[in-house]
Amino acid sequence: MNAINVAINGYGTIGKRVADAVDAQEDMEVVGVTKTAPSFGCNLAIRKGFPLYCTSDDPKRISAFEKAGIECQGGLSDLLSIADVVVDCSPGKVGAENLDKYKDAGVKHIFQGGEEHSLTGLSYTSCANHYENLGADGTRVVSCNTTGLSRTLIPLFEACGSLKVECTMIRRAADPGDSKKGPINAIKPVLKIPSHHGSDVMTVKSGIEINSLAVAVPTTIMHVHAIVADLPDNHGLTTESIVELWRETPRVIVMLGEGNRLTTTAEVMEMARDMGRKWGDLHEIFVWEDGVKLVGNRLYYFQAIHQESDVIPENVDCIRALMGTEHDWRSSVANTDAAISRYYSL
Fold first, then answer.
1. Is 144 a catalytic residue?
2. pLDDT value at position 48?
């Protein structure tokens, strides 16, 4: 089978990670990445051997790369002409401007969680609705928070048949490389109630009833979710069986906090660095085992989300769904994660 030709439109925090994850796969090839203008990220792409293109077809913007001494292969249209699928990693709300370009080029397209579900009418999470996305022209990989909620809630939903969930999200203020956002010395409630994260979960698994609140705090490390889930009367689960269920779920890590000295997000991310992950990434959702408790029908737990990386393997699985090359989500997940592990250990 020929490799899937993948274009990455936007080579920033998410785009550079998606490019590496795609590059790791035996059934995919990165045919190019884009930047809006000359910057330090261009050198990274070139060093990795990824052909560099401009996000625009404007000759003046393309020539700016050459003037800066950076080899540019052309504009976005040139890149789309050689791609089977494009992963749009543009800043939030910018991707919508690209949709017609992708359609005109006849290229399958994947947007990120910063875009609205209505843009494509489809959303994607590996464990939730891989099958529903098979062969689609375009979809949206849901946000880091929605991905994190899906990873732990969907196995619960499938085990007991229904869930009513309330989630409070303690959100990092910005990514580590973003100096433009705050708060710096404050706690900022998100006053749009409920927050969009709960409704986003329902775009990939409509049977879960979920509401969410969010508050931004001055950290750049991770998000933390405080979750309360009401299970049906006949659920038949225990705290121990739920923990075991998550242990068997791909891309979820369950560990004792107190016993392993992993009581804060800083320690969890230090563990990820010790694992040798590139950029110190943690693709998995981290659940504190000693923070899980089922009281009657009500489940309480905490989980942590590395906002820069948990959606990265989802994008790879999503490529296979749109291209129709892998119908079994668990098989795709296994292949994706094994390839990334090998790649990062090189």
1. yes
2. 94
